[in-house]
Amino acid sequence: MANLRVFVSSTYYDLHHVRNDLYLFLKNMGYDPVMHDKGTITYTQDVPLEQSCYDELSTCDVVICIIGNK
Q: What is the separation of C-alpha 53 from the centre of its chain, rounded to a whole number of angstroms?
């Protein structure tokens, strides 16, 4: 059985440390975190960046959206 794929999203600069901690937690739990800053989203030059994220999002089982001050 495939691991649970978890898409993690947040504002970039202010929550980098939170995303990193969450990435380590998810990996230790046996899940597959899908995150832009970890290089797990496939980008191509012929598709806008946002569309690449939406396409990857559709392959995930869970979404975690971290909302900060920015």
A: 9
pTM: 0.82
The torsion region of residue 37 among left (phi > 0), alpha (psi -120 to 50) and beta comes to: alpha
Of 45, 46, 56, 44, residue with least CA distance to 8:
56
Cα–Cα distance between 29 and 23 in angstroms, integer? 10
Q: What are phi and psi of 56, to 5 degrees?
A: -70, -40
> What are the C-alpha distances in Å from 9 to residues 23, 31, 58?
11, 16, 14
The whole-number average pLDDT for the span 8-35 is 91
